[in-house]
Amino acid sequence: MSLETSKIDNDALDEFSGSLRGSLLRPDDEGYDEARAVWNAMIDERPAFIVRCAGVADVISAVTFAKEHDLPISVKGGGHNIAGRAVEDDALMMDLSPMKSVRVDPDAKTARVEPGVVLNELDHETQAFGLATPVGYNSTTGIAGLTLGGGWGWLSRKHGLTVDNLISADVVTADGELVHASEDENEDLFWGIRGGSGNFGIVTSFEFQLHEVGPTVLSGPIVHPFDDAKTVLEGYRKFAADAPNDATVWCVIRHAPPLPFIPEEWHGRKVVILATFYAGDMEEGEEVLQPIRDVGDPIADAVGPHPYTGWQQAFDGLAPAGNRNYWKSHNFDEMTDGMIETFIEYGKTIPTPETEIAIPHLGGAMNEKPVDATAYPHRNFEFTMVLHTQWTDPEQDEECIAWTREMHEAMAPHATGGVYANFVPEEDGDQQAAYGENYDRLVEVKNKWDPENLFQLNHNVEPTE
Fold it and tell me: Which residues form the FAD-binding PCMH-type domain (predicted)?
């Protein structure tokens, strides 16, 4: 425990604990280690205290207590942030995971969602009415962190980013006040939380626009030998050039996982996977996806009708909690021959069986809004690259991080210069690349809503001194 936290007397802690509907965990309490754990096993921080918030009142109390005792604040929703900013040594950690409410209005096609909800929980509730909103592609991700960073996934080419579908939010500010933010109320704050990370307050409720999706969709992976990577990537590029917004295909280079639809003799061997998804009519989708299914000579083709909720969870097992993770991303406005060559070059040297080079085709509706429509600025790219470097042995840390950084640097000449804030692995850095042309405006919002930088354990925008 730090000097600052050791000065907080037990009476003050007991009074604070007694004011909560949730619970206060100290380092020696049962459940402390479980509550401080996050998805990336490289993160091992020990907060001074953990407040497991049951509702808005607990969030307000925790913010007030932290300010009174000069404690840094970290905020945990789903705990998926790659840099591990949900937890910090000697901070007051606000664990929002008990706040799990999802209230769907099927007539208005909206959902009111608390910040402890993860994506499969949101999908479970909305799909009961054949509805969904664009979210990420790992269903154990928290809705809060995903949204605050922008949020994209299988529905984004058709329906835009997660933040493009945010109607309003309730936010606890640095003053410990609850405010409502929307296009009509506290517009600057609403603009800032749509891609500006957790810089401006703690969101206690998100209101999303929903769309008719599923419950059955045309989707599935097509698996090719890595030796055919050039043919597959060129075919992927050609398909993407004319694909309608209903169609989304992602290309992934990795070792074949032991999935039942992949022949056993290919398990553990390097492959190229085309993950396909169609958001519209199933028969139309069959016709639209046929050209990508005709590329090369695949090992396996599992494209077919699948439950939307199942497809959303299909790849969770490839990125389990407890692996060590270091990620990097780039955005590209086209896929060049040089990019294809570099993908293949680094595909040959992937450092671990868990690591993958993911190349999603995005764009579509994501690019239809102006750069300054939301704090999230990246409205100018068609492809992204996400280096999902994963491993389990701490002795491989140096090797895996070095490979990721080297490939990221090798791809930089082809890239737009923008990166996805949710995929920045370092605690600091890349703010300009993540927030782009909107950075200065974010500073103005920060100056108004958090001038003392109380909320700094995030992809931080520093206020003007």
Answer: 43-213
By DSSP bridging, strand 49-52 and strand 73-76 are unpaired
Q: What is the rounded distance in angstroms from the CA atom of residue 260 to the CA atom of residue 254? A: 17
Q: What angle do CA 363, 122, 79 make, to 5 degrees?
A: 85
Phi then psi for 74, rounded to 5 degrees? -115, 155
**How far is CA 208 from each of CA 122, 275, 455, rounded to the nearest angstrom?**
11, 26, 24
Rounded CA separation 357/258 (Å): 18
Token couple for 111: 């959902």
Residue 117: helix, strand or coil by DSSP? coil
Q: What is the pLDDT of residues 353-367, one digit of tens each?
A: 999 999 999 999 999
d(Cα 78, Cα 447) in Å, to the nearest integer?
28
**183, 430 in Cβ contact below 8 A?**
no
CA separation, residue 279 to residues 34, 124, 442 (Å) = 38, 18, 34
Q: Which two tokens stand for residue 167?
A: 């109607």
Task: Give the N- to C-terminal CA distance of the chain in Å, as an integer.
Answer: 30
Q: Is residue 425 scored above 90 in pLDDT? A: no
The pLDDT, as a whole number, for residue 3 is: 41
The residues facing 104 across adjacent strands are 111
Separation CA 249–CA 381 (nearest Å): 15
β-sheet bridge partners, residue 312: none
Q: Are 312 and 28 in contact (CB under 8 A)?
A: no
- For residue 429, the model assigns a pLDDT of 64
DSSP state of 463: P
The Cα–Cα gap between 65 and 326 comes to 34
Three-state SS for 374-397 is CCCCCCCCCEEEEEEEEECCHHHH
Measured CA to CA, the distance from residue 308 to residue 210 in angstroms comes to: 14
Specify whether the CB–CB gap between 385 and 329 falls below 8 A: yes
pLDDT tens for 95-145 read: 999 999 999 999 999 999 999 999 999 999 999 999 999 999 999 999 999
State how far the alpha carbon of 120 is from the alpha carbons of 128, 221, 249, 310, 396, in Å.
12, 20, 21, 9, 32
